Amino acid sequence: MNPNFPSDPNHGRLGGPFHRHKSIHKLLGGGKVADILLWKDRKLSAGVLAGATLIWYLFDVVEYNIIPLLCQIATFAMLVIFIWSNAAPLLNIAPPRIPEVIISEHAFQQTAMTIHHKLAYTAAALYDIACGKDLKKFLLVVGSLLILSEIASSYSFTSLLYLGILCAHTLPALYQRYETEVDHLAARGSEDIKKFYKKIDSNLLNKIPRGPVKTKVK
Fold first, then answer.
1. 20 pLDDT more than 60
2. What average pLDDT is seen over the chain?
3. Which residues have CB under 8 Å from 169's CB, separation 6+?
């Protein structure tokens, strides 16, 4: 019996070379994250990218250890809070408070539900592909995983993570700006790939012997 996983809300039968009927903003979630990735709020987007660059620099270039770094950040934060709390009565200012968004139970629940939903959808999609119903898609996924494995073996996890963040901050915005040109190139590339696959299918894959298909007797 095939596992029953929830379907992806962004999945559907769409038009165009990328098969979509929603805007890039909605495909990215339509919330604050989409605004950041599409540079709707330039200051926030630049801040997130600068923070990711700083983290990559500390861990990959300077080779900082995460535990000493977290301890030093916590020490600095405690010193700032200590000075602020003791100086507040003298300067007639409000004492520091932890922002509610940092410890919000609702935010943690929403994040956990989103991650669970995406993992469930990914597991279901990989299961369907692994069953071999679509040989073209199966070979494409296996080839992509092998290429990703080779790339990952040549770079550190921090560099790959930073590269992913950098792509997420640039590719959607560039695509939104040059959508027509990219769609045209993607359509031509898709046709070339289909022609190449048909040649492989007719010259190689169709010659692979397969067992007879058994029909179930009810």
1. no
2. 78
3. 36, 37, 39, 45, 48, 49
Q: What is the spatial distance between Cα 94 and Cα 6, in angstroms, rounded to a whole number?
A: 47
146 backbone dihedrals φ, ψ, rounded to 5°: -65, -40
Determine how many CB atoms are found less than 10 A away from the CB of residue 7: 12
Query: How far is Cα 93 from Cα 88, in angstroms, rounded to an integer?
Result: 5
Count of Cβ atoms closer than 10 Å to residue 118 Cβ: 12
The span from the CA of 157 to the CA of 154, in Å, is 10
The residue-averaged pLDDT of 155-176 equals 87
pLDDT at 185 > cutoff 50: yes
- Helices vs strands, H then E, count in the chain: 8, 0
| pLDDT of 96 over the 50 cut | yes
Provide the token pair at 216: 């179930």
The pLDDT, as a whole number, for residue 195 is 81
Query: In angstroms, what CA-CA distances link 71 with 51, 74, 158?
Result: 18, 5, 20
